[in-house]
Amino acid sequence: MACFALVPAAGGGTRMGAALPKQYLPLCGHPLIRHPLATLAAVPAIERVFVVLSPDDGEWDRHEWRDLSDRLSVLRCGGATRAASVANGLAAMAGRVTPEDWVLVHDAARACLSTGHVETLIATLAGDPVGGILALPVADTLKRGAGAEERVAETIPREHLWQAQTPQMFRHGLLAEALAAHPDVTDEAGAVEALGLSPRLVPADATNFKVTFPRDLALAELILESRRKTA
Ligand code: CTP
Ligand code: MG
User: Is the entire prediction scored with pTM above 0.85?
Assistant: First the structure.
């Protein structure tokens, strides 16, 4: 069984509110998406990295990818939602993988993914019957707000609560079937759960956050810079 990576990168970055989709914003001297792609390409257990772009993406070709090109395949088949982009990507890569092969789906916007994160996920799930995801145990007390002033309506016990991250690692055949049956999910695990299966939660850390709002760029830059200095 082989491992492949699939990186959905067809979103518009509405919450970032920038002129470019956030995956192309400059981060440490490169377009943001180069960082997670280079990390995935540097993991020996991953055979190939597939990246899903919007069919009308005009930005990818403005950048230099030659150093990654023997590990990277570009699929211009993004859809209207993240789940549709992933489903289209799975269909486009189908001829190059078997249904039993693992696919690690990773958000392009999680710029600070490390090879350690990926290797932990793969090592933990290698013999797993279902698959699983990187996730972060919730550390803070959780409140549910309500009404116009968002006053506290409820305190939610944090025990057993996790924030889902990516990569999310499932077998190609299972994941394609799950997303076809349940296209309205917000992550791959949600589709697999809807089939009645229980993906495993693999502890990660807060550096694998998703760049979403403008303030997130400075934090991502700090994390990548500090790793570069200690490497
Ligand atoms: N994505 C995608 N296709 C879509 C929507 C999202 O491939 N139709 C990708 C994004 O490019 C991103 C990942 O899914 O790498 C996670 O999505 P998100 O962080 O929500 O990114 P955007 O949808 O681009 O941002 P926003 O929700 O703020 O518009
Ligand atoms: Mg989105």
Answer: yes
